[in-house]
Amino acid sequence: MLHPHRPSRPAPDNLPPAPRWSLRAACRGIEDPDVFFPDGDAVLIEEAKGYCRGCPVRPECLIDAMDRGEAHGVWGGLDASERHPQHVRRRQITPSAKKRNTKPVGGAGGRPAAA
Q1: 74 exposure class (CB count in 10 Å sphere: 0-12, 13-18, 19+)
Q2: pLDDT tens digits for 76-110?
Q3: Residue 39 lies in domain
């Protein structure tokens, strides 16, 4: 099935290489990538998102799609409307964001500092 938002001809040979994270993606090797372009059908969108659940590179995929301004399909577990900048802030999806925001409160071991 041809997708209205994807070219119908083969990609040129001079495309940049795929990002390294994509080698670990849960969707790698899926026979029909059109599953990720469900055209607004809620059932098909959930099916596409199912591939993303538990994917080890979901945050990287989402960041890459947002950086490229990807306007169609399911990327990083979100559809195009969910990837809209007003809905997603980069720090919410960056894998290391939790590490940066988890400082112990108070003194050593998370106990309140002595006065």
Answers
A1: buried
A2: 999 988 887 656 665 555 555 444 444 444 444 44
A3: 20-96
